[in-house]
TrEMBL record, chain A:
<feature type="transmembrane region" description="Helical">
    <location>
        <begin position="189"/>
        <end position="214"/>
    </location>
</feature>
<dbReference type="InterPro" id="IPR039765">
    <property type="entry name" value="Yip5/YIPF1/YIPF2"/>
</dbReference>
<feature type="region of interest" description="Disordered">
    <location>
        <begin position="26"/>
        <end position="50"/>
    </location>
</feature>
<keyword id="KW-0472">Membrane</keyword>
<dbReference type="GO" id="GO:0016192">
    <property type="term" value="P:vesicle-mediated transport"/>
</dbReference>
<comment type="similarity">
    <text>Belongs to the YIP1 family.</text>
</comment>
<keyword id="KW-1133">Transmembrane helix</keyword>
<dbReference type="Pfam" id="PF04893">
    <property type="entry name" value="Yip1"/>
</dbReference>
<feature type="transmembrane region" description="Helical">
    <location>
        <begin position="220"/>
        <end position="242"/>
    </location>
</feature>
TrEMBL record, chain B:
<dbReference type="GO" id="GO:0000139">
    <property type="term" value="C:Golgi membrane"/>
</dbReference>
<feature type="transmembrane region" description="Helical">
    <location>
        <begin position="81"/>
        <end position="100"/>
    </location>
</feature>
<keyword id="KW-0472">Membrane</keyword>
<dbReference type="InterPro" id="IPR006977">
    <property type="entry name" value="Yip1_dom"/>
</dbReference>
<keyword id="KW-1133">Transmembrane helix</keyword>
<feature type="transmembrane region" description="Helical">
    <location>
        <begin position="112"/>
        <end position="133"/>
    </location>
</feature>
<feature type="transmembrane region" description="Helical">
    <location>
        <begin position="173"/>
        <end position="195"/>
    </location>
</feature>
<feature type="domain" description="Yip1">
    <location>
        <begin position="76"/>
        <end position="221"/>
    </location>
</feature>
<keyword id="KW-0812">Transmembrane</keyword>
Amino acid sequence: MAAVGDLQFQEFDDAENLLAANRDATTISIGDPNEKPTNQRRSLGNWSRNADSDKTELLAGQRKSAAFWTFEYYQAFFDVDTYQVLDRIKGSVLPLPGKNFVRLYIRSNPDLYGPLWICTTLVFAIAISGNISNFLVHLGQPQYHYMPEFRKVTIAATAIYSYAWLVPLALWGFLMWRNSKVMNIVSYSFLEIVCVYGYSLFIYIPAAILWIIPIEWVRWITILVAMCLSGSVLVITFWPAVRDDHRRIAIATISAVLILHALLAVGCKAYFFDAPQIEVPGLSGSIASGNRTVTAVKTH
Amino acid sequence: MAEADEASKPLFAGLSDVSISEDIPVEGEITVPVGSPSHDDEYSTLDEPVKETILRDLKAVGKKFGHVMYPKKSTTLLRDWDLWGPLLLCVTLALMLQGGSADSKEDGGPQFAEVFVIIWFGSVIITLNSKLLGGTISFFQSLCVLGYCILPLTVAMIVCRLVLLGGTGTASFIVRFIVVVASFGWSTFASTAFLADSQPPNRKALVVYPVFLFYFVISWMILTFSPSHSDGATDTGP
């Protein structure tokens, strides 16, 4: 046993000096997290100041270890609290330049609760609002018989669910393909893209309710405002993923995202909401199906 | 032969070498006493009259109806769950919703199959959602609660049909609207009273919202039910 006097604090030299002595020694550097090398940034993400960011970063590696046929695998996608869902919804309608939706709100915890229930609510909101709006538009016309057009719910569901799943799939595949050609700093997983798209559809729910008002220019203004808000969230999210690519491909990708987003809104409005104009009595049989050719036949 | 060593007698030493001597008889009779049926503890439900069987189930269903109409925090619905009540309510609702707007060429109200699918598929999705969010309720218990809480809406449907017999004007629409809104609130309140305790505390709103949407869609189907007209006469309201 060593004597007490031998227990002196031993001064260690600086790392460089020690390394100068022995070039081949193995070294471990434990530095500031922000100094981590670039190629690790993709998996670690940004360290933000929120309290639960550490927990989610640590747990991110532990998730998805269950097999895909077990219940626990899917439980990992519903690991959100009420305030988190509300925060994500808020983030999807308030685009802040420079604040990436995925980095800020999702942070390696993509959930399927938001996309699933926002899409379901949107389906019913569009179907019900369309029904009410048609009723108000044709109020007082003698040959109009009100029917709850229940078939339209199925059509709305198909359209919205395929938009919410197939477009992210296509975008993810496209980004993966470009990633193999051009090294991008930022890349998103499939679930994160589904999450962004699901939450970006939220703005259309109040828009669909506002479409009940049978005034044409109100509807168009609503579409424009909704498009601007959620479209800019999408642009801010996906611009970092494509900006390292060729200029034309980047612009084309972003425009495709925006055009599809607009097409969904305009298509829903056209199909489910009749134009508030007086129709020719002879076309009363086609009122219920809400086709737009009626607007071409104006009686005044 | 057991050799007893007195000098160093460890515990259980005698057991290490056990043999049975031949003069101990190992034979006998093994009989199982057959109990007479009169001493049976279980009451065999196979022998009772059919009326009793049906009445017992109907009474259980009726008791649960009572719990739904006066919802207070009780575990009866959860403990003895059954799916007879939900099936009965679902079939009744679907039959009553089907009889209207039967224009064969235009699409009208929901068909029987559509109502059935919406109710059962919706209940399954809500139950899965609740379990995925970490709820401790079992699958069938949740189906049972959601199905039983359709009872106020079924009552509203019956009332609406009776009101529609009197006419389809604006007054009947207002009456029907109030009845449907009241029963929608009742259903949602009853189901959250039963389901509340089994949810994790910071996700209660996430679980309640789909239930709200589910009953809202059913209420919408009830409210927009319009009986078929033989002529396209003046119709000022749904």
